[in-house]
Amino acid sequence: MENKQYGVIGLGKMGSNLALQAVEKGYEIVGYDMYPPPGLSETNLVLAADLEDLVNKLQTPRKIFLYIPAGVAVDTVIGQLSPLLTGGDIIIDGGNSYWGDSIRRARQLKDDKGIHLIDCGTSGGVSGARNGACFMVGGDKDAVTSIEGLLRDLAVPNGYSYTGNSGSGHFVKLVHNGIEFGMLQAIGEGMDLLANYREELDISDILLTWNNGSVIRSWLIELMKKLYDEKQGFNVPKYVEDTGEVNWLVTDAMHMEVPIPVIAQSVMQLIASRDDKNVAPKAVAMMRNGFGGHPFGPDDHIRYERHFGKVGGYEQPAQE
């Protein structure tokens, strides 16, 4: 019989919503967060007092998701968690970790204690986590097979893909994020053009039309209209905050000698938004807020992660 019990460490926007969706679909979820958000209680999932309590509440082999910021935080939590686990247990990193780090962590956990690390790229934003997400999963095939039932239950139809060995899930998600940046920038520039036409255009109506039958119809266009209507125009700060993951992809592309001019330029334009007054970065910020709850304007916590926990300092994996 399938062990339908899972742990979730990190009950923020993604972790808590995935946990609640899993509970509704018949899974027992034990969650832990140093600062659990309001609204979570023992009535909708089991809350652990600390990591040791979470581990003790789970049957073996234990299966524990991490939904925490990429970088140093992941190594810290794995360092605290792994001594409490035994061989055959599984850690699933559902955040936006760098794929090279995932290869390193998986190898070290397997060699040291026989623990599996699965890298699980997760997309769909907050609403996807609550109602049906998209997963790109890398790692040991047997370990992945043991959690596939849950992932398929939490995904939208055809929203699950096993991508291959360790690191591949997070690499695929990183490429996904790069494509997302390019799409955001193109839509943002389109909004700038519409806003600067010689006559005032009904941008809300144009977006509605575009999303019904046009070649560019998409969730991003839908979000653009939703946020444009809610904000009554482009009335948001021009500053576009980000956590820096796509910077990794630009660096990887240079090492791989793969040209990605659109993605690279979208990163440059995002940085340029911090000094620019045009409409495009405001439109990008609005769509990012729509799908991921990303902040409008600067965010000190994200800026700290980007500069000290994320960009740079990542060991390149050995060629195999």
UniProtKB/TrEMBL annotation:
The organism's place on the tree of life at top rank: Bacteria
Listed SMART domains: 6PGD
Keyword Oxidoreductase among UniProt keywords: yes
GO BP field: D-gluconate metabolic process; pentose-phosphate shunt
Residue intervals of the 6-phosphogluconate dehydrogenase C-terminal domain: 169-314
GO molecular function: NADP binding; phosphogluconate dehydrogenase (decarboxylating) activity
Pathway per the UniProt entry: Carbohydrate degradation; pentose phosphate pathway
Record key words, sorted: Gluconate utilization, Oxidoreductase
Record's signal peptide: none
PANTHER family according to UniProt: 6-PHOSPHOGLUCONATE DEHYDROGENASE
Similarity comment text for this entry: Belongs to the 6-phosphogluconate dehydrogenase family.
Annotated protein name in UniProt: Decarboxylating 6-phosphogluconate dehydrogenase
Organism: Mucilaginibacter ginkgonis
Name of the gene encoding the protein in the UniProt record: gnd
